[in-house]
């Protein structure tokens, strides 16, 4: 039997499903955290020999990707928490604010997370996951979510071992251990945290508050786009404000506007409707989560590319720089294609065409001025946005039709 305390913590079905100011407040930390991720990407693209070959840079980016995936998992589970539980309850507010503080420590530790601040990063991450899950396992007595959190606690306890061990290990071993830890965390969430003899969790947060989670992902996209504006504006101030760099800032802003426009074109407005209309909200919600992870990663790579252009707009673009300037929009379009499939069970042609064009022009852009590479990326995104506008002109708004 569910206790009164547990029942009071839960979000009521009749309650408004819009995100609260507490959740918007929580996202402020992620403006800083994503800025630190972009800073690490720029370092990856400018460290000596690393900038000369795309393959070497991708291996360097793998370390930064580990940090992004850890931050993403914390953010996503916090969004699930505020979808399941009432954010106006003081206990839930304490959990969210404590997670916010922990996320701030993670962001601070990012710059040296694979070196001297490894223990701070790994210890904070493990403390958030284990501590938050333990809290709900203790407070949700008599409710099915208590079992869910007890199962998850086993998995988070298991992943804490490689997280903490990796903090003391040499670089290669650390990377392998942290990759293992993230694999445990992500796999556990996808499988429902199965434990021998105890089974697995079958409750999906998307089945309860799809509309709320949809808006939380919208807000994270806005946070990522805002980070791009913050980074490019700050980069301009770090050097002479001349015509070439001013044009680079203008291109960065135009690219950000186009990313925003492409995201919110119809599919971005009806994710909640698509989830509600789906026969399997949990499966569709997981696809939506993956699509947003790809889009956010694409936005961050695009932001790093914009900063590289501002550093040397008229020089010669190295292969790794071209990979960031063109690869970021391509990754974004890939995530947006999956997002469109979630909403409409189809992918419109301009998106994959845009990806192919970006990949096709990449080899000829090596050695060209970074400003020209950025202009080419913006032109491709403009083509996608214009095709969307032409397709929508004079037609009624398309309704959600998720895959069956």
UniProtKB/TrEMBL annotation:
Keyword presence, Transmembrane: yes
Keyword Aminoacyl-tRNA synthetase applies: no
Keywords from the UniProt entry: Membrane, Transmembrane, Transmembrane helix
Transmembrane segment boundaries: 21-39, 64-82, 94-114, 120-138, 150-169
PANTHER family, per the entry: BLL5714 PROTEIN
Protein name: Low temperature requirement protein LtrA
Source organism of the structure: Micromonospora krabiensis
């Amino acid at each position: 039997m569910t206790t009164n305390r547990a029942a009071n913590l839960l979000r009521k079905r009749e309650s408004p499903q819009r995100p609260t100011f507490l959740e918007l407040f929580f996202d402020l930390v992620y403006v800083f955290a994503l800025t630190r991720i972009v800073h690490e990407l720029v370092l990856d693209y400018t460290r000596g020999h690393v900038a000369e070959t795309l393959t070497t840079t991708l291996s360097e980016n793998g370390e930064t990707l580990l940090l992004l995936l850890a931050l993403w998992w914390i953010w996503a589970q916090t969004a699930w928490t505020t979808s399941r539980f009432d954010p106006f309850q003081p206990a839930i507010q304490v959990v969210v604010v404590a997670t916010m503080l922990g996320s701030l420590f993670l962001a601070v530790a990012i710059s040296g997370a694979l070196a001297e601040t490894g223990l701070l990063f790994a210890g904070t991450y493990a403390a958030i996951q284990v501590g938050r899950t333990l809290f709900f396992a203790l407070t949700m007595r008599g409710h099915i979510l208590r079992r869910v959190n007890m199962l998850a606690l086993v998995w988070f306890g298991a992943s804490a071992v490689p997280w903490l061990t990796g903090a003391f290990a040499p670089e290669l071993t650390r990377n392998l251990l942290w990759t293992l830890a993230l694999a445990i965390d992500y796999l556990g969430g996808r499988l429902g945290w199965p434990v021998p003899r105890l089974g697995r969790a079958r409750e999906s947060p998307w089945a309860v508050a799809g509309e709320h989670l949809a808006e939380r992902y919208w807000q994270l996209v806005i946070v990522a786009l805002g980070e791009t504006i913050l980074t490019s504006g700050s980069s301009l101030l770090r050097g002479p404000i001349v015509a070439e760099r001013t044009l680079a800032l203008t291109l960065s802003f135009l690219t950000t506007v186009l990313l925003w426009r492409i995201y919110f074109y119809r599919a971005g407005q009806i994710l909640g409707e698509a989830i509600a209309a789906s026969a399997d909200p949990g499966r569709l919600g997981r696809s939506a989560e993956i699509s947003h992870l790809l889009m956010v990663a694409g936005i961050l790579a695009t932001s790093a590319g914009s900063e590289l252009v501002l550093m040397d707009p008229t020089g010669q673009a190295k292969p790794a720089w071209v990979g960031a300037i063109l690869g970021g929009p391509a990754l974004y379009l890939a995530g947006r294609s999956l997002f469109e499939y979630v909403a409409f069970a189809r992918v419109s042609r301009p998106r994959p065409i845009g990806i192919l064009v970006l990949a096709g022009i990449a080899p000829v852009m090596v050695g060209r001025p970074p400003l020209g590479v950025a202009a080419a990326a913006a032109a491709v995104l403009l083509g996608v946005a214009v095709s969307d506008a032409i397709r929508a002109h004079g037609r009624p708004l398309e309704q959600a039709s998720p895959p069956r």
